[in-house]
Amino acid sequence: MISFKQLPLEAKAALAAGVVFFSMMLSRSYLAEKLDVRTRHWLLRLQMALFANTLMLMGSLHVWRSTVTMFSRSSTASSLCFMLWKIVVFMFLALAHSSFFTLPFLVAEEPYFFSLAAYTCLGAYIILIFFLFTLGSVEQAYKFLVGRDAKAGPGNKNRTVMKPVLAVMLTAVLTVVGLLNASQPPTVNSVEIPVHKLPSTMNNLKVVLLSDIHLGPTVGKTKLAMIVRMVKALKPDITVIVGDLTDAEAEIIRPAVEPLGELDSPLGTYFVTGNHEYYTSDVSNWFELLKSFNIQPLHNENVKIVSPKSTYDWFCLAGVDDIEADVLRYSGHGMDLKKALRGCSSEHAIVLLAHQPIAAKWALQERPDINLVLSGHTHGGQMFPLNAGAYLLNPFFVGLYKVGQNTFVYVSPGTMYFGMPMRLGSRAEITEIILRSP
């Protein structure tokens, strides 16, 4: 029987991650109703940070061995350059690990430099792990194909050394590209969508869709003000925000939210929760703050959007709570489609706001008469190599989808980004949706 002390470091980290994950499940199942909201919020944040760090520890050990230990026996191991390189790698890993702790402690009107640096290192860390794993797999496949004789000799040694060098170079290049891409203003994407049973007097009605702004450690007031200016320039009839507006409590980040008060769409501005609103455990205060800016939360409810040209013409705009509220057992919240569509009959067009594409799928299974669902959540994968995972985990990934004869789903790739100020293989977007009557 192997004792805990005899286990390799990777196995110890994996075991620790399992323990933290088990504690998270116990907390969600048995402590949700026994702890007050604020305590539950801090416990969840702490558990998530510890879980992420224990998982990352396995990757960090691999990074250290690949980029430092491998070269420790070379002739340059005692040089000043190698010592500086060790410090750089250590600081890089330390910043990447610390990123998860910036959320509860370093959130203000504008991002702290430390938070930006930490999340940038986290993004680079993900890219580096991917390339180290991929290049290692290619190397092993090559050895297998050419036979055991390829395992020895100077050529194989050179390939082994070049693997981490190439991985670091690719990571550096893609990190810079990702930072530059994310620093650009969101692109404005104009999409025309036919809406069955939309009154002719509401033809060409303009809806601006925002999603996944993620006010918090790396997104602050300046970026939100830029988004608001771009929205106002489009002169929408309606503005909708489909979740993940924030990653922080309302009182902490209130100054950063002020630009939202300048939104003045004539037919209203509406909001539904995303999973990150529930991670803040401060949804009620967010609802009150948004209402003070004339933004109406749709908390499993709907409103009639009346045509400016005829009071007899209207369509139903409904919104559902994010499905994460059910997972977290957030009191008084959870996706309730029947309640959200109460009074919305198939005689009129129905537009539904639902943060997660999986919620859109469930809604259409229950009410196929919904004509249009607007979602977000996926970020279009945000950055390579996370794109593939986001694609596989969501029934609708990004862009416009037609479901059945008269139903469409549009998934926003996000108006900003979460945490890592990087985008690779995706672009932030403000969506201008033009509703067409049949």
From TrEMBL:
Limits of the Calcineurin-like phosphoesterase domain: 205-380
TM annotation in the entry: 12-30, 42-64, 84-106, 112-135, 165-183
GO terms for MF: hydrolase activity
Keywords: Membrane, Transmembrane, Transmembrane helix
Pfam families recorded: Metallophos
Cited Gene3D superfamilies: 3.60.21.10
Keyword Transmembrane attached: yes
Keyword S-adenosyl-L-methionine among UniProt keywords: no
PANTHER family: TRANSMEMBRANE PROTEIN WITH METALLOPHOSPHOESTERASE DOMAIN, TRANSMEMBRANE PROTEIN WITH METALLOPHOSPHOESTERASE DOMAIN-RELATED
Protein's recorded name: TMPPE metallophosphoesterase
Organism per entry: Smithornis capensis
